[in-house]
Design goal:
The protein is mainly α and about 350 residues long. It has helices spanning about 1-50, 55-65, 70-85, 85-100, 105-115, 120-135, 140-150, 155-170, 175-185, 205-215, 220-225, 240-250, 270-285, 310-320, 340-350.
Length: about 350
């Protein structure tokens, strides 16, 4: 009797387990297909970014053969057709994506890029703005919206878009370059050296870079004069930014060292940048008391004491929102600036002038 009950119990348990095991297999198979689909899609994106259109198209089409409802693949295939100049097929792919998921932001970026390529700039605004409504932090949407504004001659709006693209993705090389080129475009006659365009991409900036940013982004002549009669600095004559260096030295914004040299190849720390920001504000406002309110304040930064040589300048720059503490609440005065950070600081400074 005991063994018969055990047998009956085992059979009952087996009947319960079998449906569960059978149900697991389709789920595992679906997951495997999903993983393969995603891998092929990512490979297609890599080919797309590398400019290998046929290989990208092959991967996106393979994805759709595995899963005809995979929306990103339609968007990717649309971008391939766009790059190849087949606007009709590109539009068809973007529309296929929209029919399947009208909340997928990248498809609207694709539609906007299509209109941008067709020079229909006014109509291109809406898809990019719609993409940002769906994904407010989408750096690509900000970048292409900025490009559209440039083509419409709305340069302030374009610059704001490039800034937001970099705020959301500091490594967005296209936005960095577009921002630098736009600043060049809006600079008065007298083209800056070609090296200036690459400052935004630099991981570490030099004193020569900072001098160029000050000259080509700020209205120095409004408070420094024309700079006539400015003398060259001994170690800067061969620097690509020699003219900019002469101008900032003549204006008193960046001092020479005790030995009379400027040090154009030396990197710029956040401490030095705060000092330069203060000099610009002092010159532009002609108010020597700007730092006075901070003399008796307690430092909010654990790494900057009240007797730090740049305490007043750091407090001034941060209180105006021109510079900010790092994520840990410290100022990190000895950290070297990168190009994006430097451009953002100088641009914010310009808004205060």
């Amino acid at each position: 009797m005991y063994s018969r009950n055990c047998i009956h119990g085992a059979l009952a348990l087996l009947l319960l387990v079998l449906p569960v095991e059978c149900a697991k297999r389709p789920m595992q198979e679906r997951q495997a297909i999903s993983d393969v689909t995603r891998d092929h899609y990512l490979l297609g994106k890599q080919h797309l970014e590398a400019g290998n259109w046929p290989a990208a198209a092959d991967q996106f089409q393979l994805v759709l053969s595995l899963n005809p409802e995979y929306v990103p693949a339609y968007e990717g295939l649309g971008l391939v057709h766009l790059e190849q100049g087949d606007f009709l097929k590109a539009e068809q792919c973007f529309e296929e994506a929209r029919q399947r998921d009208d909340t997928y932001a990248p498809l609207y970026i694709g539609l906007g890029r299509l209109l941008l390529a067709q020079r229909d700039y006014l109509r291109a605004l809406d898809p990019f703005q719609h993409a940002l409504a769906l994904e407010p932090g989408n750096a690509d949407a900000f970048f292409y919206l900025g490009k559209t504004y440039v083509n419409l001659g709305r340069y302030s709006q374009a610059e704001e878009c490039f800034k937001k693209a970099l705020d959301n993705n500091p490594a967005h090389a296209q936005a960095s370059e577009a921002w630098a080129l736009l600043v060049l475009q809006r600079t008065p006659p007298g083209d800056p050296p070609a090296e200036y365009v690459g400052i935004a991409k630099k991981p570490l900036i030099t004193r020569a870079d900072l001098a160029a940013l000050l000259v080509y982004q700020l209205p120095l002549r409004d408070f420094c004069g024309s700079g006539e009669g400015k003398s060259s600095v001994s170690d800067s004559q061969t620097s690509w930014a020699s003219e900019a260096i002469k101008e900032v030295v003549a204006c008193g914004l960046m001092p020479v060292q005790a030995n009379g040299e400027f040090g154009p190849w030396q990197t710029v720390t956040r401490r030095e940048c705060a000092l330069v920001v203060t000099e610009v504000l002092l010159k532009s406002t002609a108010d020597p008391r700007l730092i006075d309110p901070f003399v008796h304040m307690t430092s909010p930064f654990p790494d900057v004491t009240e007797d730090h040589e740049a305490f007043g300048s750091i407090m001034l720059a941060t209180s105006l929102g021109i510079m900010a503490a790092k994520g840990d609440g410290s100022f990190h005065p000895d950290d070297v600036l990168n190009g994006h950070e430097a451009m953002k600081i100088i641009r914010t400074l310009r808004e205060q002038l």
